[in-house]
Amino acid sequence: MTFRTRFAPSPTGPLHLGHAYSAIVAHDMARAAGGAFLVRMEDTDLQRSKPEWDAAILDDLTWLGLTWDGPILRQSEQLDDYNKHLDAFENMGLLYPCSCSRADIRAALAAPQEGVAHDVYPGTCKSRDMRDRKPGDALRLHLDRALARLGDQPVVFEEIGDHFKGVHRIDPDRALREIGDVVLSRKGEEIIAYFLASALDDVSQGITHVVRGEDLFEFTQIQVLLLTLLDHTPPIYHHHRLIRDDAGKRLAKRDDARAVSKYRADGATPQDIRRMVGLS
Fold it and tell me: Looking at residue 116, what is its pLDDT?
């Protein structure tokens, strides 16, 4: 099996030290294994994604000395493919429309933030039928039916990162209790849940190893469940440590002071960046 991984930022802000660490780790793992390193722009948030951030991220990656293989995939160009998979879930009878708070649904579609709990949906719209779908409704996965469809089929994935190393099996009872009915899209606005689009792209791009921060580990089970329902074999996962500020908080796009571009402007070298993130 040829090692094949990716770095998949959202072009909604500057590349900071945490992003740089993740990109360098994935790139170096691929090169050490004689494999491929891909870059993908996860820009399904059409309101916040900007071409100038896309260009700035690629410029920073190039400055860091990272090279990638093949063209850059942009999720905003793959919406038809994602909708085909949504149709597949609908044909399985695994979706239902949800008209709950637009703000809550938008938050559910976004990538999770460390320290922000995943609120399990209470099932307010669970009895609704897809024939009752109205413009602007979100589409939720009916987890009970999804698990019933899988029956005794194990839902498993392999983790090779230091913190969670091992083979993990998704427990149905825990999934119902801690995951619940996640939002997969808001049709009519072409908003696709980041974890659905990301999982589908990993399969279509032949990704063998997903390298990303440990803050996304809990959401991996959602992706593995969705891939299993679609008869895809999940990739191997490597969730690495996070780069934190002096207070121990994970860096985020709002931390402009940690933006790679600012370090560049102050005269830092790519090797300086590697040292800052513990990769010297």
Answer: 45
What six digits make up the tokens of 56? 């700035």
User: Fold match between 1-77+243-280 and 79-208+216-233?
Assistant: yes
Fold adopted by 1-77+243-280: Rossmann fold (3.40.50)
Q: How much of the chain is in helix, strand and coil states, percent to nearest 5?
A: 40, 15, 40
Cα separation, 192 vs 138, whole angstroms? 10
What is the value of pTM for the model shown?
0.90
| Domain residue extents for the chain | 1-77+243-280, 79-208+216-233
Contacts of 197 (CB under 8 A, 6+ apart): 42, 44, 75, 78, 82
Q: 223-234: per-residue pLDDT in tens?
A: 999 999 999 999
79-208+216-233 fold: Rossmann fold (3.40.50)
Cβ neighbourhood burial of 177 (10 Å; 0-12, 13-18, 19+)? exposed
Query: Residue 92 is encoded by which pair of tokens?
Result: 């399985």
User: Which DSSP string do the residues of 20-74 spell out, in sequence order?
Assistant: HHHHHHHHHHHHHTT-EEEEEE----TTT--HHHHHHHHHHHHHTT----SPPEE
The pLDDT, as a whole number, for residue 115 is 47
